[in-house]
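Quick entry, no commentary yet.
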Amino acid sequence: MTATTSAATPRATGERFGARNWITLVILGLTGQLAWTVENMYLNVFVYDTITDDPAVIAWMVAASAAAATIATILVGAWSDRLGRRRVFVAVGYVLWGASTIAFGLVSPERAGELLPWWSATAAAVAAIIALDCVMSFIGSGANDAAFNAWITDSTVASNRGRVDSVFAILPLIAMLVVFGALDGFTRAGQWGVFFAVVGGAVIVVGLLSLVLMRDAPSTAPAEGSVLAGILEGFRPSSVRAAPLLYLALCVWAVIGTASQVFLPFLIIYLQRTLRIEGYALVLGVVLLAASAASVLGGRVIDRIGKTRAILPAVALFVVGLLAMAAVRDMAGVMVAGTVMMAGFMLSVASIAATTRDLTPSHRAGSVQGLRMVFAILVPMVVGPAIGAAVISGAGETYEDLGVVKQVPTAWIFPAAAVVLLVAVPLVVVLARRFAARPVETDHVEHA
């Protein structure tokens, strides 16, 4: 990060995001989230159904892919900064991302046994799927988490980032609905090859389409120094001293993300097994749609009252929803409480994401995506599920399935997440106070 004040401050007002940019944001953002939904939610099921039911395999796969994704975001982010270009990384990355997604459908113990007859067929398939998941995550994160996210930062300004990030925040939820509604039937029928081919093919097509739709922001210019210098810069103490508010915002993001990961990995199991709600898909559909609408409407409010001022009310809404989720037991109650909870979560993420973009130093938007990956993804995905698992183990709640006693998630995961969120409160207070006092650079550039 640069040490100058102007480099770390946003342009204030007057820049229009533009219809082309909105179309690019929605199409590329949604398609990317379709691929991430497949990787985050369905790949585990694919492994369980077709390769092995050993939970250690899934744990290793998730950890390895998270590490690969973080490394890719740090590397590609700095590389795109050095070149001052994002579109080429997005276009090429999406095409390769789609191809690697299609390749999941080619992995099976039978094929692995034929290629490696001297090795256990299951072990060979496990090694192949973990390696392929790392490749897919590396390519996908480089294209989406690094280059595409940096393009969003380049193409927005302080006056519109609340709206943009509120829309961007709902795309993962819409992607889940699309996959649940349109593609889940393929997985239930065991047609995994078709499932992966449909999603991967869509990603390839959108990657090619990005060459027509996407334009690098006029303000994007090559960063000084080597790619290695760009990679290391964000982790130097001098960078923290030069841009303390940026790192404070990232710490807030880490807390919000960690709180969400305390309950999200166990949410569907909680609805199915603990609350015994058979129509959990309907519940999730209603919650995701209602919370998405609230997030989009809240984006304008975020821009109007200020991003950092919006974080605390959003976090408070998140806490209220979490406590309500711990109390409700019926389908209607879960729909209401879940909507409040997820709306609070998405508005919290939108507010802190927009704040982070405002604090991103000039020509370092790509490098900051690597930092974001560490704070907003890697740390929460390691710490949050561990807290949730500890709470569940401590509660010791069970149910019986065909004579077998199995442990189920407890409602205490929601208050536990609320407690984690409380850590963010003093950080947000300091961030809001110092953010409001910083000098603001103003200019006016209109994008297509």
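second:
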Amino acid sequence: MIPDFQTVMLPFLQILSDKKEHLTRDIVTAVSDKFNLTKEERNYLLPSGTSRVINNRVGWARTYLSKAGLIAQTRRGAYLITDLGLELLQSQPGKVDVKMLSKYPAFDEWQRGYSGGASHEVKTEEKIEQLGSTPLEIIEDAFYKIQDDLAFELLTKIKSCTADFFEQLVVDLVLSMGYGGSRKDAGEVTGKSGDGGIDGIINEDKLGLSRIYIQAKKWEGTVPIDKVRDFAGALSSQKTNKGIMITTSTFPASAYEFVSRSNYTIILIDGKKLAELMIEYNLGVAAKEKFEVKKIDNDYFEEI
């Protein structure tokens, strides 16, 4: 199990107790070994996929220990334990956490400085201490919770639209993902009876060298497997082997098994995935707030 960043603090200090300079990457390895992390745990990524969880937690432990004056940076990516850090280890603490660090004046001053006030400081530190999450993890968790709520609201909105609008929506989505060039040139909503289950046609590329057929159906329950088979048959009648089937509901496991064994390339997009793609490609949604998480650009501070 990957330790939270507060659990990492004491081992971090212990690794530096030899009074030698240690590189951050070596500390990550040593901490991973200390907790017997598996290969999968060592490579486990944050929800955003931007960095490994263990690297993130060791990084935040490093920041907090540094702000308390227990370790010091000697050069880029290298750290050394301070006399204050050695003094703490000599007291043989059972653990080192945010609550303990708050007793150090330098750490307390840093917290008050970046928190923007005592009230915000208390709320932030209580959440960090209770959850054991790093500030970045808290931000990411909140972001993806907001995304999940938006996806649910978006799918509810889609279900209230007419069938004709839904058919046009899915063509707009595929166009926004980079297929074809424009709605006029690349997207065509058929909407005709007797179309063999084809609701839209999209160019796979801007030159129109290959066409992809779309079926878009609003469905309340799970889509029956025979509907997926019928769509495959419709592709055969159109002399094509590529299709996208989109629904507002879900597909059964048998549908995914069928398309995996089929001679046709059929992509199944259920309601949840549809909403996620609309959010990703900004279709039917608009930005409300924007936050940027920045870090030090060490290259800027390299002296020439």
